[in-house]
Amino acid sequence: MSKKFSLTAEKRDGAGKGIARALRRENKIPAVVYGDSKEPVSITLPLKEVTLEYRKGYMFTHLCEIDVAGQKHLTLARDVQLHPVTDKIIHVDFLRVTPKTRIKVDVPVHFINDEECKGLKAGGVLNVVHHEVVLECAATDIPEFVEVDLTNYDLGDVIHMDVVKLPKGATSVLEGDETIATIAVPRAVVEVEDAPVAADAVPASTEKKAAE
Questions:
Q1: Which of 89, 100, 108, 177 sits a CA distance of 20 to 30 A from 161?
Q2: Where would one find the signal peptide in this protein (predicted)?
Q3: In whole angstroms, what separates CA 14 from the centre of its chain?
Q4: Which residues pair with 22 in a beta bridge?
């Protein structure tokens, strides 16, 4: 079950830049609830509360229960518009969801057991290609993250999507052979191995015999 937070909203009559600017002067923001084959509902939300939830970093993966004059809507934030200069939130779109709603969502990838990873202990570097992966799953069962166990990976190994542990019912948009990360060989090691040998280099033992 996806985690959930709650917001209290007011129903909003009218639209347009003038109304939106007036709301923002009152530290409120316009938003809309849509989907589930129902009429969209224009609402007003308190800027402070929405900003707090947004900055926690899970607004797109946690369900939001919005109370509009006593009527509750189970939703998921699908778009947050920010002011191009101040980065303040200026509008949010919420999608109504049910247990039957399937969506595509970006889910963070967590790499675990790095302290046990052979390659990292040998001085390798974890080069992450995808910090997030797109999953298709039920809107009411969005995982907070997916995991990759690094224990058995060595220097030069490539980690593919097919090793990522997915929750039941979820599928990945990426193909199984898509690279998620690599255990990169340390640059110093590569430079030493590739260093050219001087043509006139003579072993010390040979020089000694020549002198005799």
A1: 100
A2: none
A3: 35
A4: none
Q: What is the CATH number of the domain that holds 129?
A: 2.170.120.20
The pLDDT tens digits along the chain (212 residues) read 578 999 999 998 766 677 777 888 888 999 999 999 899 999 999 999 999 999 998 899 999 999 998 999 999 999 999 999 999 999 999 999 998 999 999 999 999 999 999 999 999 999 999 999 999 999 999 998 999 999 999 999 999 999 998 988 899 999 999 999 999 998 765 555 555 555 555 455 444 444 45
**DSSP H helices in 13-112:** 17-25, 47-55
Q: Please state, in angstroms and rounded to a whole number, the distance separating the CA atoms of residues 96 and 76.
A: 7
3 state SS for 140-191: CCCCCCEEEECCCCCCCCEEEHHHCECCCCCEECCCCCCEEEEEECCHHHHH
Residue 190 and residue 158 share a domain: yes
Please tell me the total count of domains within the chain: 2
Q: Which amino acid is at 30?
A: P
Q: What residues have CB less than 8 Å from 60, skipping those under 6 apart?
A: 76, 77, 78, 105, 106
